[in-house]
Specification:
The complex is a heterodimer of chains A (about 260) and B (about 300).
Chain A lengths: L10 H15 L1 H24 L4 E2 L2 E2 H30 L4 H6 L5 H29 L11 H21 L7 H15 L11 H7 L3 H14 L6 H27 L2
Antiparallel strand pairs in A: 1-2
Chain B lengths: L6 E12 L2 E12 L3 E5 L6 H8 L7 E6 L2 E2 L4 H5 L2 E4 L11 H10 L5 H14 L15 H12 L6 E5 L7 H16 L3 E6 L2 H7 L2 E6 L2 E6 L1 H8 L3 E7 L1 H7 L7 E5 L2 E6 L3 H9 L4 E6 L2 H9 L6
Parallel strand pairs in B: 3-8, 3-9, 6-7, 7-8
Antiparallel strand pairs in B: 1-2, 1-4, 4-5, 9-10, 11-13, 11-14, 12-13
Helix pairs in contact in B: 3-4, 8-11
Classes of the chains: A mainly alpha (about 260), B alpha/beta (about 300).
Chain lengths: ~260, ~300
Amino acid sequence: MDLRLPRVRKSAFTIWRRNALVWRRLIGPSLVINFGEPFLYLLGLGFGLGAFIETMDDMPYLTFLASGIIAASAMNTASFEGMYSVYTRMIPQRTYESMMATPIEVDDILAGEMMWCATKSLISGTAILAVAALLGAVSGWQALWVIPVIFLMGLCFAGPAMVMTSFATGYDFFNYYMTLVVTPMFILSGVFFPVTSLPVTAQFFIQLLPLTHAVDLVRPIVSGQAVTNPGLHIAVLLAYAMVGYYLAVILVRRRLVV
Amino acid sequence: MPEKINKIVRIDGLKKSYKTNTVVDGISFDVSQGKCFGLLGPNGAGKTTTLRLILGLSPADSGALSVFDLAMPANARLVRQRIGVVPQSDNLDPDFTVAENLYIYGSYFQISRSALAKRIKELLEFAGLQDRAETKIGALSGGMQRRLTIARALVNDPELIVLDEPTTGLDPQARHMIWGRLRKLMQQGKTLLLTTHYMEEAERLCDELIVMEQGKIIAQGSPTQLIHKNVESEVVEVRSGGEQAIKFLDDTNGYRVEKAGDTHYFYSNNASELVIKFEKIKDIVFLHRPANLEDVFLKLTGRELVD
């Protein structure tokens, strides 16, 4: 197995640009998803549940929920792109095969894919931020600091998703990861209610999950509170991104360079 | 003194196995500049794996391999910058149009936008797809897709073009069109390396070829050399009634007889006498023709090539 550390080169941007060009054609339907879904979540849950729960963690429930949904949507978008779309290009569509007949290598392809996953997270996360601001759930301009954080979250969730893709045998395989990893994080990592309301032992494990740290970064930025332990949270997100990228590269090499 | 010939590809004792299955078993050959070199053999002979090794898409187990005098796969990026690849089945990007496919593929070589614009115009012309620039890939016929795939392989103005079964699955008309394009490239001085299991293709295009079976090279030379060296000049191919024909001849001395499937092959350097005899037998269907590479393969392996 080729365990050499990946080298990220300029070619990665070529891959990113290819995906961006494809996306540009389908911009209508994708923006409907990016704006429509969070709008429904925030209106339905935010106002519906918000009628019973006025505040949570010293902020309006709508703000609590909006900041959680921003982080969750970065996770969902990057995971989906890193699994279903990357798999489509790698296996059935054989796009990587055509790329690898040129000077492009697996290192470049996956670096480009990862940046693209993060870009899509950025688009959907920013859309939700805009919707939340319209609904009055954002406390001020400092909330714009959340944008680079969303990009980092995209990288963080793209890494493990591409690791899954590297040994996926078909689309059904992703159900495991979606059901056993993504959904539990969505429910338990503090998107809808604070992690502190869970049993202490559970909290220990939940602290290992990247979405927990993503929420811990996003929520205070959106609500205008001070971020506690920003270094730790950023380090965790970076670690998932980098380890995920490295593992994905060596596993995809094993699959395609044989 | 023989003129010094540039070797584009040098292979010496190359081996590759997958688990216990040896796919390429110690092959050695060189590809000369400006020539068309063919890798001929049935499916599973190791042709595609040999190409993957040459492109640095697969690491060899042992042996030496260099392309443009650069060791592979260590210099894969550098080497692939100067190669054009036509894969076995088209992997055009279905998300894009004809022109966009060329544009995107060119960007993988870091070719500038302005250089590409000019190049794409030439390539569309070469592929006969000028009117289809804005067409989506799915709307192209098989022959058009193949022509586009070949045009795409030329986007970086490669010195060596590697083609894996360039005409498999095409109808005869489309096949002839592709052959015409490939000859054009040879006239431009490009080096071609192609795999095929069509004898006709190899005979028409290749200056030199190797015949592979089970990962080994079983014959090497120009098409005419190979035929001359291995088989008699004429064949009478009896498609039905072969057993009858053998009985009818008092002795088959002077004729070499091979059987493959339902067909009997009678080889001779002068088969006219045999033809006269066979014409007298009722109920046999036969064909008298000059020997070709198919016969070489049959003699060396005892089997027909494919189809």
